Amino acid sequence: MPPEPVDDTELTTRSVLSHLGTMGVVAVITGLLVGGLAIVPAIGTSLAADQVSKTVKEMPADADNGPLPQRSVMLAANGSVLATFYDSQQNRTNVELDQIAPIMQTAIISIEDDRFYSHGALDIRGTLRAFVTNQTSGEVQGGSSITQQLAKQTLVSQAQTAAERRAATAETYARKIAELRRAVALEENHSKDWILNRYLNIAYFGDGAYGIQSAAQHYFSIDAKDLNLQQSAMLAGLVKNPVGFDPTNNPEQALQRRNIVLARMHELGKIDDAQLASASKAKLGLKVTPNRNGCVSASAPFFCDYAVNYLLADPALGKTREDRQRLLQTGGLTIKTTLRPAFQDQTDKAVEDHVNPTDQAIGAMAMVEPGTGDVRAISQSRPMGRDMDKGETFLNYVIPSSLGDSAGFQAGSTFKVFVLAAALEQGISPYTAIRSPSPITLRQNDFRTCDGPYTSSDTYTVGNSTASPPSPTLYTGTQDSVNTFYVQLEQRTGICDPYKLAKKMGVQLTDPEREQVPSFTLGVPSVSPLEMAGAYATFAARGMHCDTKPVTEILNNEDKVFKKYDDECQRVISENTADTVNDILRGVMEGGFGSALQNGKPTAGKTGTIQDNKAVWFDGYSSDIATVAMVAGANSKGTPITLNYQNVGGVYAGRAFGSTVAGPLWGDAMKGISKYLDGKDFVRPTRTGTTFSGNSPTADVNGDDG
């Protein structure tokens, strides 16, 4: 166990000067420049003493200054790694000394400081040996002890800016004194095992690997506890010159350096003749695992991007966005997400099969679990990256604009469900029939917003895109997506209730003046696939809306719970209203526009096509997953354009509709995950007012034909 830390008052100027005095004697006798620190007889002058005293007094007592920065890891729901996060100089995973192979400990001590357990902060014998070797052989040999190296690397590790890093490595008198002060404090405050452990965790091993665990995983794809002799010798040899001996770029130099370490271990009696011979003949045996940093290299880049932006908006991770970013990159967090790899694989495949990265279109999908809000998958056709010629982008088209840079796309007729649910909540029978000729012209001030009648006195003309019954009901008007029916139904419900309901169901409506308009029911607000998946999941959960979330839990660097993300759910419509909506929308799948997309289990859905066919949607769900597929016409900069008469995924689109262009993405993904779904049927609605059951009404229409 490390000894109890001593009080700072015990680390006096005298303590440091005693070490300097010893070094001064050596310097006077040999004229030596020890580790770049010029110690001349002037050390005894009042000027030098004052400078040393001032430096010592300004130094903090706690030489280790807290935990080392560590990379954070993001995990899928099954525990597999999605991504890692670290700043450019902190790709580190700390491990305890008993999790580092003993042979690795022996190797590093043998080559860097073979008297480590015998001397204090400074090794005078080692310094003299280095000096003699340097003078007689021309070889440059270091004289710094492991404790001195740790002191220097601690200063570098704590630097937050480029200027601080330069100061931490500057060849100045003050910096050398500060380094010495830390070395003395480390020895007086901590055990040798603690110092060795921290040194192995802080050391740079080249090619972006900081600390022995990251190095073992990077070069050999194993943990530090499993390193063998030749692997340990190679890694121990790297710390002297991590760039020059980097085995991925300089394998011959790395091999030579490894064998030098082996020879030194043999010289010290740490390995025998047979071990030396065998290990020296062995190849490097690299099995490199590439360093992965950030979402670009993640297995699900845009889900990762969503999760990161979600966390950066959470005050629990820090006061400012910069604080949260720093914690993410240096805090050693374990971030457990909601992503299911099997679901992600299927949405990726569906998008890739139907929309190419360089198409003048964007394919996007989101999957949300009803009853929890857990986001199970996010995919889009344009890969993450900077190469626009390859269709790459950093814009996340799947998530809300509040968490990303995309402005979203109009949702089309998928918004009709908010008017449908509001009508049912208001007590309007699902068999209410409204005469719905096409086109129809209505007065805009007959529509009521949350602030009263719509202010414009202009007329509003709407037409239908397909033939429809002359007087559809809520069932047939929805299943045939009759525009003229829905604008009249919206006149009856008012715009306010459907608008408020959409917000309660997770749609981020923020501009009432532009959004509370007569065409609200036709989906003029711009939204994201994730918002709509969360909204439709509300129907699958029988009226319980749960806020969408990508993260379930964060652990700190000690594997203790830092924060749990519980389900945030509330009832927004009655069970029977949701059951009725489900009953109506299952008709879209059973003989309607989605009939070709069935996967053998009960599903419900709604198509959407916006003005000029610039975006098409298919929003559907089973009882245990809500999936939204969108294909939007967009040039390389993301500017909306029509999908009509384009080639999308190598297929001529003709006139683009939700069922024909977005529907196949939805159908393929849902079929791909079908084996993971329970297949539980929807609950049939109860009789309310008029007699009805299922999606085949038996009661008379109530006669309200508008």
Helix content: 25-40%
- Amino- and carboxy-terminal Cα gap: 85 Å
Largest sheet strand order: 4-3-5-15-16
Overall shape: it is elongated
Mean pLDDT, to the nearest integer, reads: 85
Radius of gyration over alpha carbons?
34 Å
Structural class: alpha+beta
- Which residue ranges are poorly predicted, with pLDDT under 50 across at least 5 consecutive positions? 1-19, 25-49, 689-706
Count of alpha and pi helical runs:
23
Proportion of residues in extended strands: 5-15%
Enzyme class: transferase
Keywords: Carboxypeptidase, Cell shape, Cell wall biogenesis/degradation, Glycosyltransferase, Hydrolase, Membrane, Multifunctional enzyme, Peptidoglycan synthesis, Protease, Transferase, Transmembrane, Transmembrane helix
EC number: 2.4.99.28
Biased composition (Polar residues): 687-699
Account of the protein in words:
- With 706 residues, the protein is α+β, with helices and mostly antiparallel strands.
- Helix content is 38%, strand content 12%.
- It contains 23 helices and 22 strands.
- The protein has a five-stranded mixed beta sheet.
- Strand 6 (361-368) and strand 7 form a beta hairpin.
- The protein is elongated, with a radius of gyration of 34 Å.
- The chain crosses the membrane at residues 20-49.
- One of its GO terms (molecular function) is peptidoglycan glycosyltransferase activity.
